[in-house]
Amino acid sequence: MTMMKKTLLTVIAIAAIALCACQTQGNKIGANATDIGGKTWTDGFEFFTATKCDSGFNCEGGTLHEGGLLLMLVPTEEGFVSAKGFRGVDKNDSDYWEGFVFNGEEGEKFLPKNFNNKTMLIRYNKNGKAIGVYYETTSMLETMKTDIIRYVFSGEYTKPDGTKVVFSADKPEVTGLSAEVTKYEIPTVYDMPGTFVILGKDVYKIDRTEKGITVTPVKHDPQDEELWEEAGSPMTLKRVAGSDDQTGNLSKEPLTTSQLQYFTKGERQKLLDAIKAKGDKASEIETINMQLLEKIAADETE
After folding, report:
1. 269: Cβ–Cβ under 8 A, 6 or more apart, which residues?
2. How far is Cα 118 from Cα 137, in angstroms, rounded to an integer?
3. Where would you tag: which of 57, 186, 260, 280 has the fewest CB atoms within 10 A of its CB?
4. Which of these, 4, 15, 5, 7, lies nearest to 91 by C-alpha position?
């Protein structure tokens, strides 16, 4: 990210132009505007913290591994529209900085919607298609762990010998994988939770498959948390039919692109086909999820 500090006279001129541009895109923050300030919003992978300023909200963030996300959200009658961002300081101050729209285009809509008593920001491109879902978080680390537990690990499975293994959908617990330990820890890789479980003295890499999960014993170098190597043969666990009800969430609330990407490519295609089959009977929630699934599929073919 390259930022250039302007002289005071240049700042005044640019700030005036930019402020007018922002005002043509939306209204100044008023009593009726949704207040997203002081909150951190995430799609399950990237996040940004919104800070209130004269023209709207400065949004800065990135991922747990690196920063680099910066955009301005300017209030409109519907919600917000993305614009080039500032640091939120007085426009005549010498500390004024230019900003830009990160990972998107200027003029995208971020519309606040309430589903199941949870406020979400639904992000739409200029063609009116949903391309992102953001919700509040107070801990990105815990948010990512919760999603991994729910969308990668959870379910009932059988080992090749018929033994049942059950991963909880809402807490870091598993039965049947170890005779001694049920609670596990999720380690970090590149500063983010990885799809690993530390179960007592054993560590396993978990990969979701079309029919279940693959559990691979691994070990890592204590001097390098990013270095993980196989320490045994992978074991395929077959999902017990009907034990995974996570797909039902597609009609209950919009999922984020990060959450949807935890499903396999084949699973996502089945989910997409099921929603498309509903045609005009698809709900708003299902339509949002359908458009997100379409975006993921399009990105994969590029």
Report:
1. 297
2. 12
3. 280
4. 15
pLDDT in tens, 219-274: 987 677 677 888 999 999 999 987 765 566 788 889 999 999 999 999 999 999 99
Distance from C-alpha of 51 to C-alpha of 87, rounded to nearest angstrom: 9
Residues 101 and 149: their CA atoms lie apart, in Å, by 32
CA dihedral 73, 76, 79, 82 (to 10 degrees): -30
Task: Detail the DSSP E strand segments found in the chain.
Answer: 40-42, 47-52, 57-62, 67-75, 80-83, 109-115, 118-124, 130-137, 155-158, 164-167, 174-175, 188-189, 192-193, 196-199, 202-208, 212-221, 224-230, 235-239
Distance CA 21, CA 192 (A): 38
DSSP SS3 for 258: helix
- Alpha-carbon 153 to chain mean position: 17
